[in-house]
Design goal:
By secondary structure, the protein is of the alpha+beta class. Helix content is about 35%, strand content about 25%. It has one domain. The relative contact order is 0.16.
């Protein structure tokens, strides 16, 4: 009984340390209002996202959260759920109207906590656009002891930037 309570308390404490979806959006775009937009990619759009990101796409249905403040689009956030090692994580990648990463937040992480990326490491994504430099051992430093986490977050960032480019960037 004591072990069960200890395990539950530990899981609850660790889960409480991660922001909710709503909290992550507010951190990325303070004071904004959000509109949830469902995007059903065509096969051609899916192929384009895969080609631009150079990463696999988990499906053609994506949700973007458009952040608006005083009538101005501040950016769009996508939530990318992906496998790290054997379990999933969900990361929010917030993108500015210019197609640049403005914030990365992890809202769910089911792997052991020692593999969770720290805030300082996630900060290196900020300011990057979708290009060849957005990869490990280039602009993104490896994450000691958590290579799979580093790969997963880099892949998620590339996918979300490619989604932004196809859904929002080409409309400019």
């Amino acid at each position: 009984m004591k072990l069960t309570l200890l395990c539950f308390a530990t899981i609850t404490t660790l889960a409480a340390a991660l922001p909710t979806r709503e909290d992550a959006l507010k951190l990325a775009f303070p004071g904004a209002t959000f509109t949830r937009k469902e995007h059903f990619l065509t096969e051609a759009q899916g192929t384009k996202v895969k080609q631009l990101s150079q990463r696999d796409l988990q499906g053609l249905w994506w949700i973007g959260y458009e952040a608006v403040k005083e009538g101005k689009l501040l950016g769009v956030a996508f939530f990318d759920t992906h496998r790290v090692r054997t379990l999933n994580e969900t990361a929010m990648v917030a993108i500015s109207p210019d197609g640049i990463v403005s914030r990365v937040e992890i809202i769910q992480f089911h792997e052991p906590q020692e593999y969770l990326a720290k805030e300082a490491w996630k900060q290196q994504f900020v300011g990057h656009k979708l290009d060849d430099d957005l990869s490990l051992k280039r602009a993104i430093r490896p994450l000691g002891g958590a290579t799979l986490t580093a790969n997963a977050l880099t892949d998620a960032s590339r996918r979300c930037l490619a989604l932004w480019q196809v859904l929002y960037g080409e409309k400019k």
